[in-house]
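Morning F.,

Quick status update on the modeling queue. The single chain you submitted on Monday has been processed. Sequence for confirmation:
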Amino acid sequence: MDDDDVGALLRDLARALAPAGARVPADPRVFGLGEPRRTIALEDGLFAVVARGAEGLAIVERERGVLAAVWGRLPVSTPELLWVAEDRAVDLRRGVPGLVDPAALFRRVGVDRGFATAIGGEIGALLAVFHGLEIDDALAASLPRRVSWPEPSPLLRERLPRVIDDPPLLAAIDRALERLDAFDPPAADRRLVHSDVGLHNLAIDPTSLRLRGIFDFAEAALADRHWDLRHLLWSGPAEATFTAAVDAYEGAGGPPIERARVELYQAATAAGYLAYRDGVGPGRVGCGRTLAEDLAWTRQALAAIGEGPPDATA
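Structure tokens below.
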């Protein structure tokens, strides 16, 4: 299935899923079109995951291993692998139950400190268990030793000048990337990480607003556990999310969290999203933000590590 024409993709998928007895709806939601790993929402909470090319096959194969390793071992639900095609290019999975609405949840943590504290605590408790999981040697050998995002620093340095013409900001980002590349975390902190823990990959009970599930393990890695907290560092009332997550993580037996390390990872991540705007117009939303919003986030994250003042009006 190397054709990303939606019609062709869905026709091929229908044929591939026939042995599993699963049906492709007439107009399903398709995620990741054009990427090595694509997800198609079916019916009754089922999803098809489709690999594209050798890179996609490797990603999906690793993700299967992670799903098997975490199934039934976490305090919340994870996707259930139901069936794998003979050529291993298609999975049938049962999704996690609950509400997935990251924009609404982010708005809520920004005004409701109680919710921010509650959801942060549940995420921290989940991560303490997740990072404590022991995995077998075969899975460990298959996992990358570096999170996939941000992309390597040389690539960011190449792209950023095409996105912004701001020498002081580019210099501050360069210093942050130098610090990131020079930092070698302790070996004991290298654990199985999800690497993209955030409101966009969590399912919430729509009534109780309790955390019900976590999904999308495609970027899992064997890396510093601090990476899994980088998307929880917010300002205002939402800051309670990170504080509660750390308290719950350490209270559940997780090793101490170094905020400065998470802040460095967040700064590099923000710069990575800014660089990813290469070729994207300033008014267009890329990865959920406009250029002005990406600039404000990058400046704020850099300020947190002492690399320049925040500028929320950029």
